[in-house]
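Reading a protein record of the kind used here takes only a little practice. The integers have meaning only within a learned vocabulary of local backbone shapes. With that in mind, consider the following protein and its fold in token form:
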Amino acid sequence: MVYELAIGDRAYSSWSLRGWLLFDAFGIPVKLKTARLYTDEVAQVLQGFYPARTLPALRLAEGLAIGESLAIAEELASRHPDAGLWPADPDTRAVARMLASEMHAGFFALRNHCPMNLRVSYQDCAPPAEVLADLARLEALWSWARKATGATGDWLCGAYSAADVFFAPVATRIATYNLPVGAEAAAYVAAHLAHPSFRRWRAMGMVDGADQEFYRRDYARREWPGPRPLAAKAVEGLQAENATCPYSGDPVTHVLELAGRRFGFCNAFCRDKTVADPEAWPKFMALYQS
């Protein structure tokens, strides 16, 4: 079964992040169509995903297209019941669905004041009262979900689920804007930043086109609070330990250097996403550790 998912800029498109996590985090293969936000590319790409009007949009194997990340989550869950998008226990599943639904339809003050930007982190954004109220509601929901489901690990309803997918962009906003939350919520945010699928998405987002001016803020910056990437860098030349790209198997055309060693890739994007966070990519790490 082959799906095709239309997404926007990885660094900025919060709904696209949700759509992609519904595939990558649950092991469901998908092909991507990308469009740069605030350009004609979005309308052009969406012509192939009618009647969807926003990103992400999904084309199913039989050609039918649907929009809205919540609809995508439910459709994937029905078509892949063993993937674990929703909890198996009915009561826990009900909690997870309620969480995703409220996130899908609410928290507008937080979204407007703190648009998703995975490329920076700020010391402070002076959140107004409306944003603080949204944060208080988030913390109340997250705490309630853990108590209602008996969850004791990193995630809200036991194992990582679609409910966590829907809160992933909110977790990044808390990280980007250094928003004030308690210890339990801060630990939940840290779990998102360390999640393997999120690290891959952010690594791609760091090199996925130029900065978008709409998202620029003049706040003082700090280091990204997630896991610190290994210190790789892009280098010139074709000399590398491997002759073919660890992702595609195609011949090496671009090279990075890590710990004095050189590794090759089939194009600039493969190399640069690896430079951004080498440990996010299991195939590269298998090569590096061999």
In short: DSSP finds eleven helices and nine strands in the chain.
